[in-house]
Amino acid sequence: MKISKLYLKGFGKFENFEFDPIKGINVIYGDNESGKSTMMAFIKAVLFGLKGGRADKEGMPSEIKRYKPWSGEKYGGYINIELENSRRYRLERDFDNNSVKLYDEDFNDITGTFTGNKDGSGMAEKLMGINESLFERTVFIRQLGTRLDGASSKDLIERISNMGQSGYEDISYKKAHSALKEALKSQVGTGRSYTRPLDLIDRRLEELFRMQRQSKDKAMLRLESEDRLKELEAEIAVLYDRERLLSLASEFSEVKEEIGLQKEKLEEIRFLNEGLRVLKKNISELTKEKEELETQIRGTTLEEERLSEELRGLWNNGNESAIGTLERQIRYMDIGEIVLLAVLIGTVIGGFMAKLIPVSVSAIPAVTLIAALLFRNSRKRNLKELQWAQAEETGREKLLEQQMENAKRGRIAAENQLDRTTDHLEVQKVQYQQQINRLEDKLQITGRQHLAEMEGKADALSFELIRLLEDKARSLTSSEACLINSVIESSTDILARELDLDLAKQYCSEQLQNKRLEKSALEYKLGDSGEELNADALEQEIYGLTQQKRALEQRGEALNIAMETLEEASREVQKKYLPVMGKVFGSTFSDITSGKYSDVRAGDNLNIMLNDPLSKTVIPVSALSSGTIDQLYLALRVAISETVMKGNEVLPVILDEPFSQYDDSRTENALKLIDRLGKRQQIIIFTCKQREVELISNVCGQSACKICSLT
């Protein structure tokens, strides 16, 4: 299997980040806090999901909270994977609502084929053949996380043992042991079970012995039950008569109440008809008022139009223009007269005093001046006439404007009154229709004929009630008899009596029901006890069950022997197969340490011991330096991975800062191991050291690895 694409929609500090790993070696390089561990966590999160819950003891929040997007982006992403059978899938998770989707290479949603759970639990295990626990303890190696705890060792040994014997990791001897144990529990039973065959037989035997003891008691109980049955039949007959009388009285009371209601409804119909008459009159008056107002508005509108047309005629008569022209002409004449007067004076003075101009010449300007004065006076008279006419028109204009304003006010007042009248009319119409609907509803359920039928039914019930009361009065209590008589005789307080009748009837019905239940129980008991138990049949069944019990106990012994044998076989398989894994482990560790430690063993429970080349003694792993221990456990991880994956899907190896405690020589040896692994499976390495990136490029070759920088 290889991961062909990582897409982080929103995960921790990443937002819309994508990376396309190659089949061989992939190096994701970046400074501390650049997001390497977050990206590594994303791979596992998409495959197996994130865990929720509270913060741990150190205050670290749960995974689901720890990796929430910093930017507020949608929380999730997907990875594309390709299996060794060339099938391609897209595994997509939405961590906001804890859901998962699996698509095939044609984007068909095949989630339901691999899991039935919304959170996708079990999906990755079906795809890859490995669960989350083994994934973390084999190919998913965190920073300083190459070591294995006791639980990891136990699970891995179990898986290796399964594969060594059967060729399949999921054919588990542990499961086979559980199956035998379950067979013992289901087919036989144990000391702590309650519903298994042996338990059922024991309980049946106890029941049979109890039946023998109870057989003698049944005859005595039968006689007592028969006597009690006769008493119950007599009590039931009395209670039935009481219930019948009370039911008739209750029905009679209900009919009387219904008659009263019908009369009330007829009165309400009369009231509704009167209301309709008033509403119809109001609608007619309002309609007439509306028509009058509309006529008034039309007349006022026409008057406004006439006055407006007359005003426009006054504005267009041209008097103002003519007055302006005459005023200008008079001003010009005044100037000319002054000029002529000056000329006349100059001529007279020149003729009399200087003798320069003849006196007769002065007559010309004099005549001209007189003619100008006459013409000027004529123009002034024309001007006064025009001004008088203009004054009259101005007064007429103001009168017309006042009349037009009055007409407009009258029209607006009429329109407002029309609106109020229209609204009032609509309200009256709605009320009229509502009254009509109410009247129709009342008429559907009320009528004289229906009232007559109810009165006839009341007479029949009264007759039947009086007849039964005379015949069955002894069945009633005194209070019940008084209550029924009051129902027959009175027509008031019907509701109060109905309540009392309902309570009395309910009490009587409950007593009758209890007596009938008691009778049914006695009849069932008598019918059940009527069949006498056969002592021979009891003895025969007890004997048969005893034989079955003996056979089940023998089967239980056989299953216990099988479980013990299977446990011994499983231990033998582990002893046989663990050395195979140990051989790969020793060879790998020898390569990393340049042959210094060539003899290393992983014994029972993967307890690692090795032969010290200096002291020639067997020493535990704890005696080594921390760097050597990391190298040793890396080799063990590789060996376990090869063993567990043998014959199954080869998974990518994912490492976070795997060489942090290695010296240059052992780092180079480890990289040669990684290069060898990268030729058959995908490798993804996260590192913050530029030196390691350069070493990987040199050892593995730049064409065989892909480097992604997060810095």
From TrEMBL:
Keywords: Coiled coil, Membrane, Transmembrane, Transmembrane helix. InterPro entries: P-loop_NTPase, Rad50/SbcC_AAA. Residues 269-310, 397-449, 535-569 form a coiled coil. The keyword Membrane applies. The chain crosses the membrane at residues 335-353, 359-375. GO terms for biological process: double-strand break repair. Gene3D superfamilies: P-loop containing nucleotide triphosphate hydrolases. One of its GO terms (molecular function) is ATP hydrolysis activity. The keyword Transmembrane applies. Residues 5-296 form the Rad50/SbcC-type AAA domain. PANTHER family: DOUBLE-STRAND BREAK REPAIR RAD50 ATPASE, PUTATIVE-RELATED. This is DNA replication and repair protein RecF. It comes from Ruminiclostridium hungatei. The gene is recF_2.
